[in-house]
Structure to design on (206 residues):
């Protein structure tokens, strides 16, 4: 005896096989249960009035200029917001911090630290002058049990002898694009879609 798969009909529609109905149901379920994209924050710490201490904000500006990022990525110039950053840290799933970072290397050296190593630098040493209150904000978020799952610190080694009103040193300024691109590499590692902006207008057809 031969059995045929039942054909189910919907009013006013073409007949659907059981397989077709299952596929439609699974597709609808996927739409309803798909989690929203994780929130990623790229935070710049620094002080524009102290030369290389502005490296974080300048790197963030290059990131904005060079890459188109989706709405799930929030770019924040933290300056010296300190404890005002607590709600931001508590709501982020992943965090990238851009800053000047003095690890006794040659000026312009790019440092990339992750996880506990990044947190230790932000807690203990911290960027010089910029964001001294960031460690307190991170501590508050940690006490509340709502810290980013992943933390990346991208820092540029400042030149010694910064003074109030100074500009970025040439060594640090030359590495801003690289710092922005490293941040973008981490976003892609987290499966965030990025799109390079056109830096030059397309050539006219001859």
């Amino acid at each position: 005896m031969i059995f045929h798969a039942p054909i189910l009909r919907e009013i006013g529609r073409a007949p659907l096989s059981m397989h077709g109905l299952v596929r439609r149901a699974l597709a609808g379920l996927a739409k309803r249960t798909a989690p929203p994209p994780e929130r990623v924050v790229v935070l710049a710490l620094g002080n524009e009035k102290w030369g290389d201490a502005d490296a974080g904000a300048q790197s963030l500006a290059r990131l904005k200029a060079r890459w188109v990022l989706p709405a799930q990525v929030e770019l924040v110039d933290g300056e010296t917001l300190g404890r005002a950053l607590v709600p931001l840290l508590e709501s982020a799933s992943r965090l990238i911090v851009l800053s000047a970072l003095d690890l006794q290397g040659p000026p312009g050296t790019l440092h990339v630290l992750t996880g506990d190593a990044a947190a230790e630098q932000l807690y203990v040493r911290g960027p010089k002058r910029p964001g001294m209150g960031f460690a307190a904000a991170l501590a508050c978020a940690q006490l509340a049990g709502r810290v980013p799952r992943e933390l990346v610190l991208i820092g540029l080694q400042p030149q010694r002898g910064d003074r109030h009103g100074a500009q970025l040193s040439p060594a640090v300024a030359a590495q801003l694009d690289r710092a922005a691109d490293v941040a973008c590499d981490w976003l892609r590692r987290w499966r965030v879609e990025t799109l390079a902006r056109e830096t030059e207008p397309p050539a006219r057809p001859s």
Notes: Residues 24 and 30 are 10 Å apart (CA to CA).
